[in-house]
Amino acid sequence: MEQPNTTYIDELSGDNLEFKQKMIGILKRELPEEIEMYQSQIQNSNFLLAADSVHKLKHKVSILGLEKSYYLAETFEENLKNNSTQLQNDFEAILKAMHKFVEAL
Amino acid sequence: MNCIIIDDEEMARAIIAQMIANHKELHLVQDFSNAMQAIKFLNQNEVDLIFLDIHMPDFTGFDFIQTIKNPPKIVLVTSDKNFAIEAFEYDCIVDYLVKPITEERFQKAIQKANTAQISSSKLTTEKTSTEDNANEFYVNIDRRLIKIEFNSVTVVEAKGDYIHVKTDTKNYIVHSTLKKIEDKLPNDLFLKVHRSYIINTKKIIDIEDNSVLIGKEVIPVSRANRPELMKRLNLL
């Protein structure tokens, strides 16, 4: 499984450490909120709303350099729009890896 | 150029704000986490460029564009590549950035915004005009453009910020105004009979004093519009 990284954030920040810290701060705050929202919608079988949450999370997936996972998230989003939870476990494994990585930043 | 950002995701706003800060010619006036706040702001302020997320809860980027009167240049920002075709049907949209945005791609969008020769008269929320003899129009529903044949429309009813487009087989709820759709519909087929109703005159079953029957629906006819309706009828 591919691992999250900060390559995009590093490239974007350059020498601007203040901006880099700002980005990490937002990630630490926003990612758990978005994951929680997604989990709540899945638990309530609100698949269309869950698809919206996955859509939003896709940006964080790509920010953390998870290129292959991004395509999986994209397919999972489409599945949810069609009332299917296929790829749920794979997607949630990605979320777990992202959460763990971001917490350690 | 004075800019604003509209995106429900803080991370996206922060990234765009940083890129704006790196460009001397750009000035970030404000950022917004939802479209409604931005609409209120734009009612009292003018900007040159908007960075607009498409996929937002409740009110999408396209809803936003259709709501504001004279949209400035807009750069769409989204995680979804599927909206590209729809995006370029709006004259005000100068570019389309897919997240995560790179500095290089952002630079290109700014160049496009700078060189876009958009006269104020061309800035319109209307879609690019279709052929004069078109037999259909398109409505934006849940981020999909749905084709509706003029001949299939029976009634269009205004309800608040939405219109109900009723056809022989299906009804559609569209975020638009009666005035906008009236401009799109062919005059020889459609007539506004009441401030809230436009009817397809070919679908009339019968007429009473102040109402018409279309299908099973009784549509009110206002006193002011009745003479024009009577003129359209092939009376014996």
UniProtKB/TrEMBL annotation, chain A:
Record's superkingdom? Bacteria
Phosphohistidine carried by residues: H55
Q: PROSITE patterns, from UniProt?
A: HPT (PS50894)
The UniProt entry, under SUPFAM superfamilies, shows: Histidine-containing phosphotransfer domain, HPT domain
- Give the signal peptide range: none
Keyword field: Phosphoprotein
Record-linked Pfam families: Hpt
**Record InterPro entries:** HPT_dom_sf, Sig_transdc_His_kin_Hpt_dom
Q: Where is the HPt domain?
A: 16-105
Protein name per the record: Hpt domain-containing protein
Q: What is the lineage of its organism?
A: Bacteria, Pseudomonadati, Bacteroidota, Flavobacteriia, Flavobacteriales
UniProtKB/TrEMBL annotation, chain B:
| PROSITE patterns tied to this protein | HTH_LYTTR, RESPONSE_REGULATORY
- Its protein name is Response regulator transcription factor
- Origin: domain of life: Bacteria
Q: Which PANTHER family match?
A: STAGE 0 SPORULATION PROTEIN A HOMOLOG, TRANSCRIPTIONAL REGULATOR-RELATED
Q: Where is the Response regulatory domain?
A: 2-114
Where does the HTH LytTR-type domain lie?
Answer: 137-235
Q: What InterPro entries does its record include?
A: CheY-like_superfamily (IPR011006), LytR-like (IPR046947), LytTR_DNA-bd_dom (IPR007492), Sig_transdc_resp-reg_receiver (IPR001789)
Query: Which Gene3D superfamilies does the protein's record reference?
Result: 3.40.50.2300, LytTr DNA-binding domain
4-aspartylphosphate modified-residue sites: D53
Q: Name the keywords, alphabetized.
A: Phosphoprotein
Species assigned in the record: Flavobacterium jejuense
